[in-house]
């Protein structure tokens, strides 16, 4: 059984998904890959995990770094899970590039070359936006590229965290 709940953030409505115990999805309304993996049958219910997540989001949208993380559960390929694990380590208020994540995986797996585009694909399929901070990943040379919720939301999230977005350059219209 899957459960959902809505949350009205200052930058758009969010849908939260849970298996009843863990947060399994968090998406902006109508974003690309919205509800990816969400079953057609679900129940709208305010569970304890949603209360925890809403507290986390309330804290975050007040411009503070939450000092806890609700229980999360993702279900992706081995590669995507590795990328999402790396995303969780990006400190609040900082950014990294797709290329830096690729190099980290290359080193960990003793690989010759991993493309930044492959990392971008995994980042784009992150099922738990904001809490697994895919918005903190930018392109090379401070290019502000790709965010399934829209670049306007990516910029808003970075500004909430105190990132100087004037140094970033727009490269696409996502």
Number of domains: 2
β-sheet strand percentage: 15-25%
CATH class of the largest domain: Mainly Alpha
What name goes with the CATH superfamily of the largest domain? Winged helix-like DNA-binding domain superfamily/Winged helix DNA-binding domain
Q: How would you describe the shape? A: globular
Protein model, in words:
The structure is a single chain. The protein is α/β, with parallel strands linked by helices. The chain has two domains: 60 residues, Double Stranded RNA Binding Domain, CATH 3.30.160.70; 93 residues, Arc Repressor Mutant, subunit A (Orthogonal Bundle), CATH 1.10.10. 32% of the residues lie in helices and 18% in strands. The chain contains five helices and eight strands. A four-stranded mixed beta sheet has the order 3-2-1-4, covered by helices on one side. Strands 5-6 form a two-stranded parallel ribbon. A two-stranded parallel sheet has the order 7-8. The longest helix is centred in the N-terminal third of the chain and has 14 residues. The radius of gyration is 16 Å and the shape is globular. The model has no long low-confidence stretch (mean pLDDT 89).
